[in-house]
Write a structure and sequence with these properties.
mainly alpha
């Protein structure tokens, strides 16, 4: 039985809409039910690596939404194959 979290146990994380749309494409057919579910999974994984003493995160330059090009179908398929080979799909 799934336990519901208290409403105040969540926060809103804002990401650029083009990135959100790209992630929607990436998760299609992957088993993730939403971009939020996928983002939480990725962020938990990243945080666990950081906790285990991995190299500290370095800031990266953020692209403006106008600079982000959509993923090609081949790129999306490559991402799906890579996630599958890693056991995520």
């Amino acid at each position: 039985m799934k336990r519901e979290a208290a409403p105040d146990s969540y926060v809103t994380l804002k990401i650029p809409r083009p990135l959100y749309e790209r992630l929607k494409q990436v998760i299609q057919g992957s088993g993730f039910h939403s971009v939020t579910e996928f983002a939480v999974y990725v962020l938990r994984d990243l945080a666990s690596h950081h906790h285990r003493g991995a190299a500290p995160l370095q800031p990266v330059a953020v692209e403006s939404p106008a600079d982000i090009e959509p993923l090609s179908p081949d790129e999306i398929e490559a991402i799906r194959q890579r996630l599958g080979s890693l056991g995520y799909l």
